[in-house]
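Archive maintenance. Older records in this collection stored only the sequence; we are now back-filling the structure field for every entry so that each record is complete. The fields below show one back-filled record exactly as it appears after the update. Entries are processed alphabetically, and Class I SAM-dependent methyltransferase is next in the queue.

ARCHIVE ENTRY
Title: Class I SAM-dependent methyltransferase
Organism field: Romboutsia maritimum
Length field: 268
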Amino acid sequence: MKLQEVREKWVNKEINKCASENLWDSMADGFREFNIPTEKDSLFIKVIKENDLINENDSVLDIGCGAGKYSIAIADKCKDVTGIDISSKMIQFAKEKAHEFKKNNINFIKEDWENLDLDKFEKSFDVVFAHMTPAINSAETFEKMIKASKRTCIMCKPTRRTDSIADKIKNMLNIDDSYGDLDEKLLYAFEILWLRGYSPYIEYENQVWDIKRPIDKAKEIYTNKIKLSKNITSQEEDNIHNYLNQIAKDGFVYEKVSTTIAMLYWNV
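Back-filled structure field:
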C-alpha cells in the first residue's frame, strides 16, 4: 500500500465534536485521583527509562494529557512539559494535581489537537507522546504528532479491546463499530512510519480494568460515547438509560474492560 492510500483509509470517524468534549468532561472526575505511575507499574514509564527516551534537557509534549497523570510522572525527568487536552475539566484537574505534587515545569492548555494550528508547535519539542488518547484518530493527527517532534515520538493505544457494557449498547443500537478500529489505527500508524522510512519499536501489555460508576454518571458517559459515531433519537437514548437501569446494582454500573496496550516509539 502507498502512503497516500493509508492516509485516505485512516480518517476520523467521529461525527460529533461536541459529544467528544462532553464525554471527556463527564469522565474527568474518574481521572482526578491517581498515584504517579512508575517503572514498576507502568509499561510506558518502564520503556522510557530502559531506553533513555527522555532526558533532563528535553521539552516534552503530552497530547491528550487528561488529568495530567503522565505529564506529572515524567516532569522530574525533563526540562519542561506541555500538556494539551480537549476537556476543560481535565485541564482544570491537571493544573490542580501539578500544584499538589509541586511540579512547576508543566504548562497545561485546553486545545483540540485535531484542529490545532501546528505553526506554534512544529519541531518545538524533543519528545512528543500520546498516551491512551483518542486525539490521535487519523493519519492527519498522527503525522501532526511527528511534525511537532525534533527527536522522539511515543504512542500508546488500546488494542484487542472488549467493553462488557459499551459493546452491548452498540449491538443493541445496531452500531457496526466495535473497538476493532483501534487495531486498525495501530496498523495504519505502523504502516505510515514504515513507508516514511522509520523503524518503530513496539511493546505490549495486557490489562483488565474494573470500572464502577454511579448510574446517572454512567448514563451521561455511555450516551456521549454513542453520540461520537451516531446521531441517536430520543427513543434510542431512553433505551440506553433503561438498559443501564436494568443492570445497575445498588445505584452503580459495573463494567469490565479487557485490552492489550500497544506502545509504539520511534525517532524522527
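Update note: The mean pLDDT is 94. The beta strands are 59-63, 80-85, 106-110, 125-131, 149-163, 201-214, 252-267.
Entry marked complete.
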